[in-house]
Specification:
two-stranded antiparallel sheet; mainly alpha; binds zinc ion
């Protein structure tokens, strides 16, 4: 393969990597409103990266309400038996 073509491939690879990095950099701290208590909570860049990597939708509730729901679900299971 001529050197020129190799360069073209390399440049394209670099551009693709850069585009991917730019995509990641878009994860900025966001403020969301909780569906349950109406409080504003921070959806951090780290959390967004995690949610994004798992293909999950952003959370609708604050951490406290999410925890409460989780505890409620756990508590409800023995009652149903
Ligand atoms: Zn809440």
């Amino acid at each position: 393969m001529p050197v020129k073509n190799l360069w073209a491939v390399k440049v394209r690879e670099l551009k693709e990597t850069e585009a991917r990095l730019m995509e990641r950099r878009e994860f900025k701290e966001r403020k969301l409103k909780c569906l349950d208590c109406g409080a504003t909570f921070v959806f951090s860049a780290g959390e967004q990266t995690f949610f994004w990597s798992k293909g999950l939708a952003p959370p609708k509730r604050c951490q406290e309400c999410r925890l409460k729901r989780k505890l409620t679900i756990v508590r409800e299971v023995p009652n149903e038996q």
